[in-house]
Amino acid sequence: MDKILRKLVSKKGMTITAIVFVVLLIASIGFAFMTKVNYNMSLYLPEDSKTKQSMEVFEEEFGLTTMLQVMISDTNNEEVAEIVDEVKQIEGVKSVNWLGDVADLKQPVDAVSNPLVNRFYKDGNYLLTIEMNEDEYSLVTDQAIDKTQDYLKTKAVTVNYRGPAMSAKTTRDLTARETLNIMAVVVPVALIILIIGSTSWIEPVVVLISLLTAIVINLGVNGFMPNISFITMAMASALQLAVSLDYSLFFVHRYYEKREAGMDKRKAAVSSMKDALGSVTASCLTTVFGFLALVFMRYRIGADIGINLAKAVFISYLVALFMMPMLLIVFDKWLLKSKHKSFVPNFKKIGGRIHKGRFPIVAIFLVVMGIAVVFQSKTKFFYGDQGVLEEDDPVVVQDVAITNEFGYFQPVVILYDKDAKTEAVAVAEVLQDHELIDGIDSIVTSIPKTIPSDMIPAEYLDRFVGDKYARMIVSIKVMDETEDMYQVAEDIERICKENFGDNYYTLGYASSITEIKDTVTADGIIVQIISVVIIALIVGLIFKSISIPIVLVLVIQTAIWINFAIPYFTDKTLTYIGYLVVSSLQLGATIDYAVLLTSRYMEFREQKMEKKQALSLAMQKSVNTILVSCFVLAAAGFVEMLMSNVPSVSEMGLLIGRGVLLSGLLVLVALPALLVLLDKPIQMLTFNKKKNKEENIWKKDL
After folding, report:
1. What percent of the chain stands above pLDDT 70?
2. What is the DSSP string of 163-217?
C-alpha cells in the first residue's frame, strides 16, 4: 500500500491521475444522456407475480395500452366532433371513446334517452376516453399527450385531464425537472455547511471537487445500466454527495494533523491516507452493504435502488482514494494559507460531561429505545410509489373536477376467455352491485345480448375482444391507496375466481398495489435482518471485536426505531418502500459516525489513556467531522422533502433528514456514555490491540 501511495503522489503519478479523471469526466457527461429511466413500478414485481403474467397476456391480446380521460367544457357537439377527429389522427392514439359512439348528435343531447349518454355528457361537459397505442410509460404516449394538450390549447374550451397516462407523465416530468433543481440547492447548502465546519476557506472547494467528480462519473455509468427507476434517479445524486462526504473529510482532517506535525506535503498526503484508510473503507463498506441488503427483496425495486446507490457510494470511495492525495498536494499552499479559526466549538468539555452523566444517559437511552421499539411497529404504510397526493396538486384538482361530473376513473381490467359470455355476464351483474364499483365497460354490458356477434361494430370488437380473451374494464370508486382499495381488489379477484375459475387475469393500479403489498411486507423483515447482520460483521472485522458491533448497531438501530415511531404519534402513513430504503440507508450511512468516534476512542485507549481523557480527546477529534457529515446528509434529505412534488421521494427526504439527525444525536450523546460504561467488556472482547508506530519508509525523491 505504501508503494502505491508514494507512486500516486509523485509528479508522474499526479499527472496520470489528472489525465485519467479528465477523460472519465468527459466520457461520463456523454454517457449520462443515454440513461434510461423506468417509471413502471409493476415491472419490479417477481417474475411469478400475477400482475406480471397479466401484463404479458394483455400485451399479446391488446398491446400494452393505457387511457387518458379528457373533460371538455364550454363547447358544443360540432366542435367536440371536430376535436375527436383531430385527436384520432395524433400519432400514438389508438381510439377515442366519446358521446358520438352512443348517440345520434343530429338531435339535441338532452333529448337522447340512451342511459349511456350520462357516461359521456353531463351539464355541458363532454368526456373523451382516449386509448393510446402504448402503455403510460412510453415516450410515444408522452408525446401523444403533449400533442393533444397543444392542440386543445388552440381551442376556446376548458379542459381537464385524468387517468394513468396523465399520472405517469406528470411523475416523469417532475422527476426530470426536480433532479437538477434539487442538486442546484443541495450543492450550495453543502458548501455553506462545509465552510462553517472547516478550518480553511479552500477546504470546501477541495471536498466538493472530489464529490462532484464522483457524481458525474456515476451519472455516466448509469448510461450503461439497462434502466434505473425514477425514484433512484430523483434522489441518487443528492444522496451520493451527502453520504460519501465524510470520505474526503476524513482524509483532509488527517492531512492537517500531519502537516501540523511538521511533515512535508507529499509525506503528509500519504500518511494521512494510510491513517484514514481504515475508517474510510469501513465507512464505505457499511454504507454499500446497507444498500445491497435491498437486493434480497423479491420486489425488484429494492435491487434497483440498492445496486445504484451502492455503486454511487463505491465510486465516491474510489474517487476520494485516488483524487484526494493529488488535490491535497495541489491545494496545499492555499489550504494552509487560508486557515482560519473554526466556527464550530472544539467540544473539549463535552467528553467529561458525558463521562460524568453516563449512568442517567444510558438509562434514558434504554427507556427511549423500548418506547421506540413498541410504537414503530404500529406505524401504518402505503405500498405503492405515490401514497396520497396533496389536495392542491394540479393532478388532484383536475381529477376531482372530472370525478364531480362523471364519477371515479380508477380502472381494473379483467381478461377472460372470450367464449365465457355467460360467466362474464354473471361477473358484471355481481360487480355492478358492489358499493365501491362505479361502472363497467365491456362487450357484455355495452351491447345487448340479442344482437348477433356479426352485427357488432368492428370498433367495439377491437376494443373489447382479442384472439383468445375479452376484456372488461371495471371503474372503482377509490382513488387513493386505502383499505377500501385493497378490499375491492380482493373482491374482484374472488368474484372472478368463482365464475371464471383460474382462466382470468386482472390488471390495474388497485390489483398491482395489492400484490405489491403482499410481496414487500414479506421482504421487509428479511432486508432488515440481512442489513443488520452484514453491517455488524463488517464492524466486527474492522475492530476485530465481538462487543463493538453490538454497541454501534444498537445505537443506530435505536435511532431508526425512533425515526419510524414518530409517524405513529403524528398519524402519518408512510410508503413502505421508503421505509425499507431509509432504514437501510440510515443504518449503513450513519453508522460511519459511530465507527469514527469509536475508532478514535479505541486508538487513545490503546495509548494507555484513562477512559475520561480518551473520550474527551476522541470527541474533540471527531465531533466536527461527524457534525458536518450529519448536517449535509440531513440537509440533502430536507431539500428532497421540500422540493420534490413526487410524494414518495418527498417523504423519503423527510425520513432521511430526520433519521440522520437522530443518529447524529445518539452517536454524540448515547454512544460515548455506552463506550465508557462498557469499557471493560469492550476491551476484553476486542483483539486488535497494537502499538501506534510510525514507519519511516520514504525516499528522497518524494
Report:
1. 92
2. SHHHHHHHHHHHHHHHHHHHHHHHHHHHHHHHHHH-SBSSHHHHHHHHHHHHHHH
DSSP conformational letter for 686: B
Whether residue 162 contacts residue 409, with contact meaning beta carbons closer than 8 Å, is answered with yes
Grid cell digits, residue 455: 352485427
**pLDDT tens per residue across span 216-234:** 999 999 999 888 888 788 7
Q: Who contacts 146 (Cβ-Cβ below 8 Å, separation ≥6)?
A: none
E runs forming strands in 429-584: 437-441, 469-476, 504-508, 574-575
Q: Rounded to an integer, what distance in angstroms lies between the CA atom of residue 693 and that of residue 698?
A: 15
State the pLDDT at residue 155: 92
Rounded CA-CA distance 339/198 in Å is 9
CA distance between the termini of the chain:
16
Closest to 479 in 3D by CA, of 416, 578, 397? 397
DSSP count for the chain of H helices, then E strands: 25, 13
Environment class of residue 236 by beta-carbon count within 10 Å: exposed (0-12), middle (13-18) or buried (19+)? buried
- SS3 state at 342: coil
For residue 2, give the nearest of 271, 247, 258 by alpha carbon.
271
Mean pLDDT over residues 499-526, rounded?
A: 83
Q: Residue 433: CB partners within 8 Å, gap ≥ 6?
A: none
Give the closest residue to 581 by CA, choosing from 239, 315, 281. 239
Angle at 522 between CA 519 and CA 526, to 5 degrees: 130
277-294 residues labelled b (16+ CB within 10 A) or e (exposed):
bebbebbbbbbbbbbbbb
Residue 47 in grid coordinates: 417474475
CA distance 485 to 488: 5
SS in 3 state form for 420-445? Answer: CHHHHHHHHHHHHCCCCEEEEECHHH
Cβ–Cβ contacts within 10 Å for residue 570, how many?
A: 7
CB 390 within 8 A of CB 467: no
d(CA 526, CA 297): 8
Q: What whole-number percentage of the chain has pLDDT above 90?
A: 34
Average pLDDT, the chain: 85
Helix (H, G, I), strand (E, B) or coil at 270: helix
Give dist(CA 657, CA 563) in Å, integer: 10
Distance from C-alpha of 644 to C-alpha of 186, rounded to nearest angstrom: 13
DSSP assigned state of 340: -
Tens digit of each residue's pLDDT (9 = 90 or more) over 94-117: 989 888 887 777 766 666 666 667
Q: Give the number of residues written for the chain.
A: 702
Which grid cell sits at 101? 359512439
Q: Mark out the alpha helices in 377-505 (DSSP H runs).
A: 394-406, 421-432, 443-446, 458-464, 483-500
Task: Report, as an integer, the average pLDDT of 299-308.
Answer: 86
Close Cβ partners of 358 (under 8 Å, ≥ 6 residues apart) = 672, 673, 676, 677
Q: Is 152 exposed, middle or buried (0-12, 13-18, 19+ CB in 10 A)?
A: middle
Q: Please give the Cα distance from 520 to 234 (Å, whole number).
A: 21
pLDDT of residue 459: 67
When pLDDT is averaged across residues 133-147 and rounded to a whole number, the result is: 87
Q: Supply the DSSP string of 96-130, one letter for each residue.
A: EE-GGGTS-TTS-GGG---GGGGGTEETTEEEEEE
